[in-house]
Amino acid sequence: EEEASASARAGGGAKPEDLLQLSRNEQESFSKARRQHRQVRAVVYVAELCLTRERFRRLLRPRELEVLARVRALPPEAVFLLCKMYWRKPTWFWVREDLARHYGRDMRDFDGAVAELIACGFALSFAQACETDDGCKGGRATGGGGGGAAAA
């Protein structure tokens, strides 16, 4: 199915590579989310949709297109971790602090990760609009769990 193929294309190496180093609990949570809630596939699918459908592309600024392309290239595990942090604390400064604490690294190392994080929220905000698009198969791209506010 289309959303599964979009998810498959999201594989491959991405930076920061630290995002792949998930704890056992995080890996289990990711598996559960992928099976039951589809948030990760929703992000990847909607990013794909925004980048490939002309009517969505016209609504996006060049920077937003660039960041969505970076999200599409992230491994699903990284998308999951970023989404988890976004949904818990939708304030960019706090998220940046969380990432730094999580990995014990300087906050400046994670500016790129936060850019992807914002794009995750931006992409999720398009899920509702997708419901009216025939290519979305009746809105199956929407993944439960709220928090998909549009990024400023």
From TrEMBL:
Region (Disordered), start-end ranges: 1-21
Top-rank taxon, per record: Eukaryota
Protein name from the UniProt record: Uncharacterized protein
UniProt organism field: Phaeomonas parva
Organism phylogeny: Eukaryota, Sar, Stramenopiles, Ochrophyta, Pinguiophyceae
